[in-house]
Amino acid sequence: MKLKDKVAIVTGSSRGIGREIALRFAREGAHIVVNCRNTLPKAKAVAKEIEALGRKAVVVQADVGTAAGAKKLISATLKSFKHVDILINNAGIIIERNFVDSTDDDWKRAIHSNLDPFFYVTRAALPHMMKRKKGRVISASSIIADRYDFGGSNKMSACTAAKAAVMAMLRAVAVEAAPSGVTINAVSPGYIATEMFATLDQKGLKKALQMIPLGRYGTPDDIASAMVFLASDEASYITGHTLRVNGGMAMT
Ligand SMILES: NC(=O)c1ccc[n+]([C@@H]2O[C@H](COP(=O)([O-])OP(=O)(O)OC[C@H]3O[C@@H](n4cnc5c(N)ncnc54)[C@H](OP(=O)(O)O)[C@@H]3O)[C@@H](O)[C@H]2O)c1
After folding, report:
1. pLDDT tens digit string along 156-182?
2. CA nearest to 13, candidates 86, 79, 68, 78
3. Rounded to the nearest 10 degrees, what angle do helices 104-114 and 157-177 cross at?
4. Which residues surround ligand 1 with Cβ inside 6 Å?
5. Positive or negative, the Cα torsion across 143, 232, 225, 127?
6. Could you say which architecture CATH assigns to the domain 7-241?
7. How big is the CA angle at 143 (ends 140 and 149), to the nearest 5 degrees?
8. Minimum-distance ligand 1 atom for the alpha carbon of 199
9. Residue 8: pLDDT over 70
10. Nearest-CA neighbor of 122 among 109, 139, 110?
């Protein structure tokens, strides 16, 4: 077990990639704080699965794109477990729309769920980790921040800005946290088959597949494996890094 008795918060873990990360971390021995914004029954079901694995699970419904939501998440974690070892900033949304047609609300929502959580939740968790001189923060970025042409419909500019900002900002935070032994990294997924896929342009999805050298979409498990590695002792000398998990798409 690579994460035995660690306490891990996984934001947006009621479904999709976050759910898989939560379950994989539990199988690796971690206790999990499951988080969602709306889908509470799904979050509770994930917690049950974690408990069936013999690990502890706490569900915290909180909008992590707000300071109040972040505070609620960290307070509930400390109340239940007294400390936090790992923070996975996984929550996020995708909006597929032409730049010129994007609304004020699109822009606000893209930043709210993809960038604001990195600021608010990391800021709330980091002082506790730095005091204990250990901790891991791993955030979700995206292939859309790496390539101008990522297949699909290529109409995701608002979210692109947020995901690129996460990758840029984490390096600054990593330098600040390094003297305390806390590492700050990101995992940048390519096309990962989750519920998010149903909301995307289906013709574009087929086009994207042709751009993936390994010839398949990724699975939530592919991302969970990278997260386990970065959260484990094996990655103790890695910080400020974005690990790209995209079937080779970023290099083409
Ligand atoms: N799937 C892909 O191909 C892909 C590619 C690149 C990057 N990513 C990134 O990977 C992460 C997970 O993606 P996914 O495909 O698993 O997404 P998903 O299936 O749509 O699940 C998103 C999760 O995030 C939660 N969430 C969203 N906004 C939130 C907020 N403000 N506060 C709290 N929870 C919030 C959702 O909770 P509710 O259900 O309660 O709303 C849900 O649990 C995202 O950051 C995404 O941008 C995904």
Report:
1. 999 999 999 999 999 999 999 999 999
2. 86
3. 30
4. 11-12, 14-18, 35-39, 63-65, 90-94, 113, 140, 142-143, 189, 191-192, 194-196
5. negative
6. 3-Layer(aba) Sandwich (3.40)
7. 160
8. 20
9. yes
10. 139
